[in-house]
Design brief:
Layout (H helix, E strand, L loop, with lengths): L8 H8 L26 H4 L18 H5 L2 H4 L38 H12 L1 E4 L2 E5 L15 E2 H13 L4 H14 L4 E2 L2 E2 L8 E7 L4 E7 L11 H18 L3 H4 L1 H15 L29 H17 L5 H24 E3 H8 L24 H5 L5 E3 L2 E3 L2 E3 L2 E2 H10 L4 H13 L1 H4 L8 E2 L4 H8 L20 H10 L3 H12 L11 E2 L5 E2 L8 H15 L28
Antiparallel strand pairs: 1-2, 3-6, 4-5, 6-7, 8-9, 10-11, 12-13, 14-15
Helix pairs in contact: 5-21, 6-8, 6-21, 7-8, 8-11, 10-12, 11-12, 11-15, 15-19, 19-20, 19-21, 20-21
Protein name: Alkaline/neutral invertase
Catalytic activity: Hydrolysis of terminal non-reducing beta-D-fructofuranoside residues in beta-D-fructofuranosides
Family: Belongs to the glycosyl hydrolase 100 family.
Length: about 575
């Protein structure tokens, strides 16, 4: 879970003046029409008729980025209009429609598991209110342990909760959350004497109640209280992804159309798209800037950040207005997506053939014709990777930078790669093949390993700085995190492999509720409740609910899935041995 933060409430209020007004307009305005629909066929999963009968136009997901960059929408500001991405498999907005889990038997014939009702009760107990309005869910409702920062609303943690509420036809809390965090983005952010970028989103916030004045205030943490004082790079990306999910689920574009939201998106992406000394389209990051928020050797170009960056860019294209200031931003996004997809598919991808090619790499190559472009030393290949790599399968490795490849598997980055279509269809299938082939290693007795394998002994001392929380097969160092179940399920459904998700959910159901919804599990197979794991962890609860609702109604996956742009650059093979 997130590192310990010791917030001084009075100091934070005086320095940040975080008095945030509540938007009293909670009405959800449905769109009169859907501007366009994706040409995506999920009929094999749903096998039910589409009741929607409107004129179908090609969506941004279906159209190529190349076509978009030269389209009249960008050339003519007067005619510019944003394209909405309602996919075929999202037949209608979900506002007012609750999940089948609220009845003894769902509409699709799945028997509701007894722990579903308990999960909803626990999720509702975690809700946070600000001046009478629900604005999020706290990280954990565990009164047996010191609260530390687990009584705060974390941006990344709230995402599965938000999806659960959206799928259950309760969008108000999501709308409120998006607006409150947007307001917090505008406040001055300083660590010591250094001011953070204007677009940085908070890692978390909490509601402070002044009993004397009977007044509530929001207090935010932008990294100034975090372990290592690292700003959350992923928060802004999750915010954009959630905004698109809200718009897609409700059919209500009024929130995304607000000038404040449009500006917030531009500020977030301006931090990432500014020109500098970078020679790669990937984002250079510090250790601890994402879900793995402690020192774990993920500095540089971690797969989690690159995949979230890619998805946020694609979601931004769908919610940004293509006129005025938005037009220039859209053009930058299109260029970056082309470069980023090419880079990730070419240099981060690893399968058996590519592993063999790296094993045979020559070093010290100079010139643009070099095959070993990053001068990776073959002797640096870890021994475990040769046995771990199946004959059929592959994955995006953890990190690629000069003379360094981190070959560890990271679940979140690979699942997001599938959902965002950063992975090609062939690569997505290969990732699923890997999970099936290495079920014991990656799923075991509790889904899902946050990374694999664990680092230990001397390497653990060097990489983590002897971190007592990230010992081998614990926490971020090979621990098993139930929250990842929703990401795995979404990826399985998108690739047409729902049976994998169903099997993983059955594994989780055997223990998750009985163990009181732990934050994470320890051990090589995920057999033991984590040694410092909080109980009644909100995103463990929400992740399970979202996974169940997605299996019940696969159309929900449309909130978090994007189809491949067919004009993206093809995968480049780094080895020329195949031409011989």
């Amino acid at each position: 879970m997130q590192g310990v933060r010791s917030l001084d409430c009075s100091l934070a209020m005086s320095s940040l003046n975080l008095n945030v007004d509540v938007n009293q307009n909670g009405d959800i305005k449905k769109a009169d029409t859907l501007d366009d629909i994706n040409d995506i066929d999920f009929s094999k999963l749903l096998e039910k008729p589409r009741p929607l009968n409107i004129e179908r136009l090609r969506s941004l997901d279906e159209r190529s980025l190349t076509e978009l960059s030269g389209s009249p929408q960008l050339r003519n500001a007067d005619n510019a209009s944003r394209v909405h991405d309602h996919a075929d498999y999202v037949a209608s907005p979900s506002v007012g429609r609750r999940s089948g889990f609220n009845t003894p038997r769902s509409v699709h014939g799945f028997e509701s598991h007894p722990m579903v009702g308990e999960a909803w009760d626990a999720l509702r107990r975690s809700m946070v209110y600000f001046r009478g309005q629900p604005v999020g869910t706290i990280a954990a409702v565990d009164n047996s342990e010191e609260k530390l920062n687990y009584d705060q609303v974390f941006v990344r943690d709230f995402v599965p909760s938000a999806l659960a509420f959206l799928m259950n036809g309760e969008p108000d809390i999501v709308r409120n959350f998006l607006l409150k965090t947007l307001r917090l983005q505008s406040w001055e952010k300083k660590i010591d004497r250094f001011q953070l970028g204007e677009g940085v989103m908070p890692a978390s916030f909490k509601v402070f109640h002044d009993p004397v004045r009977n007044h509530e205030t929001l207090i935010a943490d932008f990294g100034e209280s975090a372990i290592g004082r690292v700003a959350p790079v992923d928060s802004g990306f999750w915010w954009i992804i959630l905004l698109r999910a809200y718009t897609k689920s409700t059919g209500d574009s009024s929130l995304a159309d607000m000038p404040e939201c449009q500006k917030g998106i531009r500020l977030i992406l301006s931090l990432c798209l500014s020109e500098g000394f970078d020679t790669f389209p990937t984002l250079l990051c510090a250790d601890g800037c994402c879900m793995i928020d402690r020192r774990m050797g993920v500095y540089g170009y971690p797969i989690e950040i690159q995949a979230l960056f890619f998805m946020a860019l694609r979601c931004a294209l769908l919610v940004l207005k293509h006129d005025g200031e938005g037009k220039e931003m859209v053009e930058q996004i299109v260029k970056r997506l082309h470069a980023l997809s090419y880079h990730m598919r070419s240099y981060f991808w690893l399968d058996l053939k590519q592993l063999n090619d790296i094993y045979r790499y020559k070093t010290e190559e100079y010139s643009h014709t070099a095959v070993n472009k990053f001068n990776v030393i073959p002797d640096s290949l870890p021994e475990w990777i040769f046995d771990f790599m199946p004959s059929h399968g592959g994955f995006f490795i953890g990190n690629v930078s000069p003379a360094r490849m981190d070959f560890r598997w990271f679940a979140l980055g690979n699942c997001i790669a599938i959902l965002s279509s950063m992975a090609t269809p062939e690569q997505s299938t290969a990732i699923m093949d890997l999970i099936e082939s290495r079920w014991e290693e990656l799923v075991g007795e509790m889904p899902l390993k946050v990374c694999y394998p664990a680092i230990e002994s001397h390497e653990w001392r060097i990489v983590t700085g002897c971190d007592p929380k990230n010992t081998r097969w614990s926490y971020h160092n090979g621990g098993s995190w139930p929250v990842l179940l929703w990401l795995l399920t979404a990826a399985c459904i998108k690739t047409g492999r729902p049976q994998i998700a169903r099997r993983a959910i059955e594994v989780a159901e055997a223990r998750l509720h009985k163990d009181n919804w732990p934050e994470y599990y320890d051990g090589k197979l995920g057999r033991y409740v984590g040694k410092q794991s909080r109980k009644c962890q909100t995103w463990s609860i929400a992740g399970y609910l979202v996974a169940k609702m997605m299996l019940e109604d696969p159309s929900h996956v449309g909130m978090v899935a994007l189809e491949e742009d067919k004009q993206m650059k093809p995968v480049m093979r780094r080895s020329n041995s195949w031409t011989c």
